[in-house]
Amino acid sequence: MTSEDPQPVSDTTALIAALARRPGPALAYSGADGALELTGRVCANWAYKGASLLAEAGVGPDCALLIVVPPAGYLHWRALLAALSAAALGAPVRLARPSAEPPDGPHAALAPEALAEAAATAGADELFVYAEAPLALAAEAPAETRDYNAEIRAHPDVVALAPQGSIEFSAPDSPPTAAPVPAPAPGAVELAGWPRDAAEAGRAFAALAGGLLSTADAPGTGAPAESGPPGAPDVGHATIGAWTK
Locations of Low complexity compositional bias (predicted)? Predict the structure, then answer.
């Protein structure tokens, strides 16, 4: 799969709605703290709730979401779904290494607990901190930061969102790119590291909405790669089919 492959276009509202209609696994995550699968409905809940929380912090077309990625080179599933939430608000999504200089302009930041005080988070209008453990309901958020795990749970399961026809995205050390939002796509896709550009971010979201997207907290090259036909093997120790309150 390459960034040049043609693909039917859609919008973020339709993509998340398709995700919400999926009762089966849509996202498989494997990490040091355990493995799990999330159904499409739960992923959609995370996307809707995250959009509501991020909008409350001002994230939108004029306020980017900066996501700090761990040095090992991966995009945690909570960060991935936060990226979808931000894209649904029409916000630019920026991935940054912990040591990166903060970007210019208004932005909120999202970082794992261990990177809450990384250089890249300095200057953020709001800093959200999340716990990486698969079922963590709260994070150890330092003073003056916000607990993403805890706060997101208070937001609605479904929110009205304006359709966004394109994604603006940048990977670490790369310039921003924009691409149309693709339609849901069947098949199993492995996200090794993080997307390299907006087109690959869109393909990851399309796999989430129409197939099975797998990710892990292990080093990767940063490109979603086609991994096989629909019905990838079960890599989770548990399937989460309802929102955990």
Answer: 218-229
Q: Token digits for 118? A: 């990384």
Q: Is residue 244 in a domain?
A: no
What single letter denotes the amino acid at residue 5?
Answer: D
CA dihedral 182, 184, 187, 189 (to 10 degrees): 50
- Residue span of the structural domain in which 181 resides: 12-229
Amino acid occupying residue 70: P
pLDDT at 175 over 60: yes
Q: Which has the closest alpha carbon to 99: 124, 74, 68, 129? A: 68
What percent of the chain clears pLDDT 70, i.e. is strictly above it? Answer: 86
Q: Per the domain annotation, does 91 fall within a domain?
A: yes
> Given a cut of 50, is residue 242 above it in pLDDT?
no
Residues whose CB falls within 8 Å of the CB of residue 76, separated by 6 or more in sequence, listed in order: 31, 70, 112, 130, 132, 215, 217
pLDDT tens for 9-51 read 899 999 999 999 999 999 999 887 778 899 999 999 999 999 9
Cβ atoms of 232 and 214 within 8 Å: the answer is yes
**CA–CA dist 202, 224 (Å, integer):** 10
CATH (domain of 28): 3.40.50.12780
Model confidence at 52, in pLDDT bands (50, 70, 90)?
very high
pLDDT value of position 190: 93
Q: Give me the number of domains the chain comprises.
A: 1
Torsion of CA 89, 212, 175, 167, to 10 degrees: -30
